[in-house]
């Protein structure tokens, strides 16, 4: 096992937005320079909640991979693949499901929360309850030393560590290392309405949309609701538009906006126009790169095929050890 190997995945929900960029892709771009990275499209995980709506998964996967590539995830520096094309994930998932106590899955903090948030779906399925086992398989089949996570994801990683520990104990082996958390700090990215940016909320700015679409969305954003008139002094700390776009403004420009808003020297419309231009300018080279990649038919399939072959080779080595350990 390499102590520099990390594994991370993303469900293919289609084109990505700014929250994905700051929450995942920006970290992946840095990690691939230092670690041996396995990044995968978690299409089997999509089935845990979208088992009755599978038509778009393949297209969503292609769109997502294009965003990865355009925003700096480099197949020359990491392994990019689809989960469902590496069958060792499923084999290990089956084996681990035989030894994982149901009580561990029922205490998963996301289990009841997602059932409540997705109340229109029937999530009383074996696959949904057991998705932490599949997640553990995704990670330990590559003997990952670390997994990039935020603080809120630590309980999920701990289930993976417990499953690896239990397998090693039951079969008196050391096949699986217990992956450590590689804590990542990410800025809070709000959507157009002040809630967390999410495709399902309809409040997202997508990485691949046009500059004009982005400008229009920024101009629709909520500002300081306590600033009723143009002549009223405002407070940037209460402004949803500023909280998002401050990520793209130079420090001196932030200082100008703070002073101008609080003194009513600038209005919200003027401020949002300025912020929109900085955001559009920041995204322009990535969007141009994505347009170039879109013009290369077969590129995504080629990258995935190469990555899947590399991933399968590594996973097969692990599964040979697993079968030996359980005497199959």
Features of this protein?
3-stranded parallel β-sheet, 8% strand, 14 helices, 5 strands, mainly alpha, two-stranded parallel ribbon, 328 residues
Question: What is the topology?
Answer:
Blueprint: E1 5-10, H1 18-31, E2 36-41, H2 43-50, H3 57-70, E3 78-82, H4 88-97, H5 102-106, H6 109-117, H7 126-129, H8 131-140, E4 146-149, H9 154-170, E5 180-183, H10 211-219, H11 240-245, H12 251-262, H13 268-294, H14 299-325
Parallel strand pairs: 1-2, 2-3, 4-5
Account of the 3D structure:
- The chain is mainly α and 328 residues long.
- The chain has helices at 18-31, 43-50, 57-70, 88-97, 102-106, 109-117, 126-129, 131-140, 154-170, 211-219, 240-245, 251-262, 268-294, 299-325; strands at residues 5-10, 36-41, 78-82, 146-149, 180-183.
- The strands form two sheets. A three-stranded parallel β-sheet has the order 1-2-3.
- Strand 1 (5-10), helix 1 (18-31) and strand 2 form a beta-alpha-beta unit.
- 36% of the residues are buried.
Compact description:
The protein is mostly helical and 328 residues long. It contains 14 helices and 5 strands. The two termini are 23 Å apart.
The computed structural class is mainly alpha
Query: Count the helices. How many?
Result: 14
Largest β sheet strand count, sense and barrel closure: 3 strands, parallel
Order of helices and strands: EHEHHEHHHHHEHEHHHHH
Helix content: 40-55%
| Rg, alpha carbons | 22 Å
Distance from first to last alpha carbon:
23 Å
Tell me the number of strands: 5
- Low confidence ranges: none
**Envelope shape:** elongated
Strand content: 5-15%
Question: Kindly state the mean pLDDT as a whole number?
Answer: 93
Spatially, the strands of the biggest sheet line up as 1-2-3
